Amino acid sequence: MSSAQSAHHGMRIPKPLAIIAVSSLAALILFVANYVNTGKLTREADARAVITKQLRFEDRSDGSIAVISAPDGQIVKVIEGEAGFVRGILRAMARERRIKEVNQSIPFELIARADGRLTLFDPATGNRIDLESFGKDNVIEFAVLLKPQGAQ
Hints:
Blueprint: H1 3-10, H2 15-37, E1 49-59, E2 65-69, E3 75-79, H3 84-100, E4 108-113, E5 118-121, E6 128-130, H4 136-143
Antiparallel strand pairs: 1-2, 1-4, 2-3, 4-5, 5-6
């Protein structure tokens, strides 16, 4: 028998310690389940919307994304380059639409709230992404889409 094998066989967890570890894990699971079931873990109510903009996002042949104001068809912005965060969010939302087989042309809603939070909502699927969860720099990438056309 090699020394590695004998060392492995010599490492046994004492039975009382194992019982305490399993009991603690079970207690933690029950605590979390109770916390969730009592409603203490609920979503905070949304602050009122101060700006809501309906936007469509279209891939272009050059790899950029055209951000279009749905009501008037005006281009709000053309997103060029990597723009990883914006692309990732839009890919996730588009994937959900494909899975649920909903109309891809229904505009998304970008919502600025009175408390400074920013939400991307998909009325076609009911999905929402609270963008502030991803940090200030990433929120800014979407916040610029709320500016009036022509504003920089």
